[in-house]
């Protein structure tokens, strides 16, 4: 960077623009003053800059020298140049087109072009509502302005307003039936519309199938005499299975496996091991499977928490807690693990709570199991 002493005199053409040259002793002030001259300005001048700078004021007055149509045309041309300069100048392009409109030129065609050009900038910026507003104004002033229709179609497609976009396509093609750009956009809109309709039909079919599966499930549950209740006191004890939510089951829920004839009921089961405060989730236990089948699988290898080594498939008892009433405390009933799951689910004292079957599993004859059973009256379930 040159020192103050090394700064040369301003060239004659700069002096003519900047005014009488000062003898600078401060480099920063020199650069600051230089940047205030129109030739070197990097940003659009503010109203304050114009008021304080005679050169800018003179140039500004030249801009507004002429008829409203001439001034508006000048702003339109400046806006076009800014737009063509790229995204960094888009803000200025909008400003120029706006200033052109502010001249209120007595030329519908010129004003329509200013609106449409401003819409073109906003289309690039993704300001689709502004695009539609400006294109609407342009079409009002010049009903056969196909470019305004084109930009409206682009904005409507981006907003997924497909019916309105098609209306614009039809209007534009009535004016210019062979306009290739409009035809291309029309094809895009029709393709999007078809895809959207197909997606909607598929969604409707999924919803209908879900409702049919729900009805079929409720019929199957009722036919088997299985009780489904909710832990939420505000819910009906026989509410729809969609209300059954349990932290342990996650997204799993009772359902019918329709690959079998007749369909097989599948239920999520949580096995609780109260001795070690552990649990396992069987996501979809089939009603025809015996519980022992699942115990054999789960305890094929020793559980890492089974420090005593007593939780082996042939050394386990399974229990469920019966539902209590005002005059009947809950009981702990033992379940025959070799019986099909359906036998448990259909037991008079058993209910699936919140869509998940819950069972206690303990090592047979263990001190903990004996102490746990003492909390209940534990007759063997018939």
Automatic annotation (TrEMBL):
Superkingdom, taxonomy of origin: Eukaryota
Protein name: Cns1/TTC4 wheel domain-containing protein
Residue ranges that the Swiss-Prot or TrEMBL entry lists as coiled coil: 187-215
GO molecular function: Hsp70 protein binding; Hsp90 protein binding
Organism encoding this protein: Powellomyces hirtus
Annotated keywords: Coiled coil, Repeat, TPR repeat
GO (cellular component) term, any one: cytosol
Residue ranges, annotated region (Disordered): 229-259
Family membership noted in the UniProt record: Belongs to the TTC4 family.
Biased segments, Low complexity type: 230-242
Gene Ontology process terms (BP): protein folding
Taxonomic classification: Eukaryota, Fungi, Fungi incertae sedis, Chytridiomycota, Chytridiomycota incertae sedis
SMART domains on file: TPR
Keyword Disulfide bond: no
UniProt-listed SUPFAM superfamilies: TPR-like
Pfam families the UniProt entry points to: TPR_1, Wheel
